[in-house]
Amino acid sequence: MVDPLQVQSTVSGFLTRLGFPPSVVASCDYEKDQDIYQVSLKTDTPALLIGYHGETLAALQLIIGLHLHVHSDQWLNLSLNVNDYRQRRETSLHSLADSTVEQVIATSQPHMLPPLPANERRIVHLHLSNHPQVTTSSQGIGRSRSVVISPKA
User: Considering the entire predicted model, what is its pTM?
Assistant: First the structure.
């Protein structure tokens, strides 16, 4: 296990070298039960770090994970979050799924959500996994992969 303060320091230094302003403040917590380092970034300009639909955030998470691997010789499970973006996005996905379930139940027709990244499709699948009236599946290839919500037979 790597010390969370070391992860925090490495992330802060990495972001500084990338040219992000010093107003970006990093903190890190290690969740032992899930074996994951939760890195939280606070900033006045979250859009720079989040990017379009979280793409910059996902890329930063990957690059920082690789950077940490090089410095620690260990693969670390890492979750990067900016100003609680991931929690807000999860709430938004739950709302989208719930409103789509209402449409599916009312029409008895399957409905396809817009294309989502794998981690967001997983959130929808898990949210609806125990729903008594609908089932979920994924369709499509690559970036155009979507969740399909269908009524149970």
Answer: 0.84
